[in-house]
Design goal:
It is built from 8 helices and 9 strands. 35% of the residues lie in helices and 20% in strands. It comes from Bacteroides fragilis.
Length: 208
């Protein structure tokens, strides 16, 4: 069964993961990929996300894609119980995943049943492609000068709009709706919401 937990701000919806996972999280190993945040000046969400995972007893194994070898990355992604990708620059993240073929490994692992947690940029790249965010300058595309195409993980058929209605992305989120509402299946979520995906079953949940 394919399972994904997509959100805008993981620390704000972390309590929902316990319900969604439907298992004891204590001692579970989670591959934590903060690569998208490397180009950002504001990175507090990396620390708060990691703390939220540790608070429920998970073992966080950080995998910074640009610093690990292909063999190390592959080994961790195959042995872990969960995969987590933080927010940051969507295009830089996609560039680095493609550079080392990590996009293919993640897709294979998730399609075989490993639970995927995507926060902001990590939620966007679960979509078939990321071009819908390029055209509203959701993230600076110049941070990914070697990105040649916008095809993404393709784990879901819809396109997530994270931080919908939240500062400082409010106008950009509205612009995505304006441009693509009749062309793509868009799912906007605020910082206090998460999308639960179990195969073809999709639910939007509000944080308690």
């Amino acid at each position: 069964m394919k399972r994904l937990f997509l959100c805008s701000s993981f620390a704000d919806v972390a309590n929902l993961l316990i319900d969604f996972a439907n298992e004891d999280l204590k001692g579970k190993i989670i591959a934590f990929i903060p690569t998208a945040s490397l180009t950002e000046s504001i990175r507090f969400y990396v620390k708060t996300g990691k703390k939220a995972l540790e608070k429920v007893g998970m073992i966080v194994e950080e995998v910074e894609i640009t610093q690990f070898s292909n063999e190390e990355i592959s080994s961790i992604l195959h042995k872990c119980d969960y995969i987590y990708i933080t927010g940051g620059n969507t295009f830089f993240l996609l560039q680095e995943l493609k550079r080392k073929g990590v996009d293919k490994i993640i897709s294979e692992q998730v399609k075989s049943g490993k639970l995927y947690i995507g926060e902001s940029a990590g939620a966007i790249i679960a979509s078939p492609d990321t071009e819908y965010m390029k055209n509203v300058n959701f993230d600076p595309i110049e941070k990914a000068p070697e990105l040649e195409d916008y095809s993404s993980l393709g784990l879901v058929d819809f396109y997530t709009i994270p931080h919908y209605g939240n500062f400082p992305f409010k106008k950009k989120g509205e612009k995505v709706i304006q441009l693509y509402n009749e062309k793509l299946q868009l799912i906007p979520i605020s910082n206090k919401q998460a999308i639960f995906i179990e195969d073809s079953n999709i639910q939007i949940k509000d944080a308690r």
